[in-house]
Amino acid sequence: MPARGKDGRYHHGDLRAALIETAIEVIGERGVRGFSMAEASRRLGVAVSAPYAHFADRDELLAAVAVHAYQLFYAELSPAVGQVTGPAGQLAELARCYVRFAAAHRPLFEVLYEAGLDKARHPEIETAAAPIDDLLSACVRALSDDQAGAGELASALEATANGHVVLFFDNCAGQDEQTVAQAAERAARSTLALIESRHLLTRPHDQLRL
Amino acid sequence: MPARGKDGRYHHGDLRAALIETAIEVIGERGVRGFSMAEASRRLGVAVSAPYAHFADRDELLAAVAVHAYQLFYAELSPAVGQVTGPAGQLAELARCYVRFAAAHRPLFEVLYEAGLDKARHPEIETAAAPIDDLLSACVRALSDDQAGAGELASALEATANGHVVLFFDNCAGQDEQTVAQAAERAARSTLALIESRHLLTRPHDQLRL
DNA sequence: GTCTATATCCCGATAGAC
DNA sequence: GTCTATCGGGATATAGAC
């Protein structure tokens, strides 16, 4: 809750940080498309022009939220993966964390995939995502002999983890702890299955038995 | 191109169908969030109130687009899968078709996953999707001994195919035929890998070697 | 079924005062 | 850094005429 003065107006707080916080709140209620600078201003009790002292436009605020999302995810991911030994188990844990993170912080996940941010105009987003990519790459490389196989495996794992999140949100009936755990477990199992049969990702087409 | 009279106004056409067509066009240019009833009216040269004679509101028009999407996908999918023998090959073909469809009809795919339609309020969408689900279920059942395994495999395949589409759109650099074929092939390979190691999707956790 | 006209609301962004 | 005030634009949806 941001600090307010007796007159109800915003005071001596960090408006920039408060805007990010409020944006996440609004997105949680109305989705990314339902977020507006005006709404954030209203909730914080500041003038509609105040946010523009901190963000050039709406997209820059959303980009800041995206950066926050990647930083938070890495902060959760890093210790969890560190407790596992072996690249396969680490990749499974990565998938589990990915689903758990998306479920626990849906607004942040939404910003990453539905805000329609132009990454070329907001390079800070990819900078924030880099440590996560590095972690994935390191695990995959530890499993693959050739470079081409590493690329194929990495994209397959990325697609699968993301797909499980989308599937989870689609069946949004119950989002209790049990449902989340089930979705996370499925993502982890799929990860292990892809790793075990990773040779199928690169073998020439005519050697595939169908 | 919808029929128009000499005065430039819309005539004797099927405005309902024209609205769906125009919606797809607009979504292709501006995304789902950029679509509005007013914009569609403008492009068709009709009054902004005209669409409301055919659709109660914006969401109902988008729901009609979603129904069209599922019908078209099934029409493409059915013959392609029919040319393949064996459930594993059919599931791989399904994944390939899924990616190809999304790439060829991005606006339709967007409506399905980004329009934020309340499926409870638009049951016709799930009705249109049913034949596709049935096809997937039939193939999966032909591969699985137990019912639980079938469910796990089905959701893993669904997640993976969808994830490959999202990944493809994310790296939207080139959407030429070659890039599409590569993404479709990756989805098919991942499908075969998951099928081959499907035992990992159900085995109890303590029997997993990490 | 389509039109004209309108009510109502919301948004992004800026200028200039304090 | 925040405020007041405002410009210019766009959206949904309805009422009543034809």
Short overview:
Chain A has 210 residues and is an all-alpha fold. Chain A is built from 8 helices and no strands.
How would you summarize the topology of this molecule?
The structure is a homodimer of 210-residue chains.
Chain A lengths: L14 H16 L6 H8 L13 H25 L4 H18 L1 H9 L8 H21 L3 H24 L6 H20 L14
Chain A binds a DNA duplex (18 and 18 nucleotides) through helix 2.
Structural class of chain A: mainly alpha
The number of domains of chain A: 2
| Strand elements of chain A, count | 0
What is the share of helical residues of chain A? 55-70%
CATH architecture of the largest domain in chain A: Orthogonal Bundle
Order of helices and strands of chain A: HHHHHHHH
Approximately what portion of the residues of chain A adopt beta-strand conformation? Answer: under 5%
**Biggest β-sheet of chain A: count, sense, barrel?**
none
Largest protein interface, residues of each chain: A-B, 39 and 39 residues
**Fourth-tier CATH superfamily name of the largest domain in chain A:** Tetracycline Repressor, domain 2
End-to-end CA span of chain A: 58 Å
Shape of chain A: elongated
Overall pLDDT of chain A, averaged? 92
The value of Rg of chain A in angstroms is 20 Å
